[in-house]
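Every protein is a chain of amino acids, and every chain bends into a shape of its own. The fold becomes a row of whole numbers, each drawn from a learned catalogue of backbone shapes. The protein below has been through that process, and both of its lines are reproduced in full.
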Amino acid sequence: MYHKLSDDDILKGFRKGNADIIREYFYGYCLAGYNIFDQRYQLRGKENLDFMSLAHQYAIYLMEHDWKPLEDHSPEVSLKTWLIGGFRYIVLDALKWYRKEYGSISFEDYLQSFDMASDNLRLQFNRTVEDICDHTPLSRQDRLIITMMLLRGFKGKEVATQAGITASAVSQRYKKLKKDVIIPYFRKNFDMDLDMTEVMDERAIAYGKMEEAAMSMPASRESGIYLEKDYMEKEETYMEKKRTTPAFITELQSDEIFVFGSNLRGMHGGGAAYIAYRKFGAIMGQGVGLQGQSYAIPTMQGGVETIRPYVDEFIQFAKEHPELTFLVTRIGCGIAGFTDDDISPLFVEAHNVDNIVLPPNW
């Protein structure tokens, strides 16, 4: 009945409290957004991050402001996109609360979100766990805990039976092993990003620029739902003058290459490296150079100076392949621990190479 309503009619229905329009459009749009954000943030199953809690919170906010935040949307952006963009900030605020209450994303959360459907990737993961057991000083009991819980998928109670200790003791020991051994080893050898991936799902690409705009708003604004139209216009003008690598890359033209930070072992298990593996042809075990529609620059092997030779090699490669356009992500600025100020000087020469596109402010 309401499928062909205009954005103006939908807003009028919201203001009048039309239950059918609110159910179909407000909650329908929010549900579409929730499904997108759940893939990125793994919302389901976390306290107060279920769909209805977040959607009700958003609805209360909008009703308190007579739905005006939606009325203010840019004419170039559909009401659906604008509404979901605002819902995103409700999600992000709720995530901040959740992390404050429960800590940052857990190793188990990471494992649950990890794509184990790939046999090759799963094999590489298993080998890393085996490396931990083979090359790290561990007691027999510690090896048993790691092997059973990470490789075999047993629960703490089941491990406790095998180890001859209490489930509580297994839990405490596993937490200590995670902190002191497992997570540091994965960070070093598996490109493991326990915070956030660098690339968003393709269906969320429309919200990337909205997030960038919100980040630059005056602090006096209470909510991220509002966007500054003049900022958006300035941003678009700047982008026309100088192309920069977008924050979220979800697809490439046939002549474009995704340039990402890797490790020398080519363990593309997280962040941009994982996206390169999943979407753009990166090869497990290859840590340097062109592979499919991606190009790997190692960043995990030491200080900044250890990265420079690989950057120089990349720039020379780009010069020799003018038919390709290289989109450089913020290599080294994720789990490798470097800053933009550390890495961007390595790319000074790249400014004179027309087919190299760099991140903003590099």
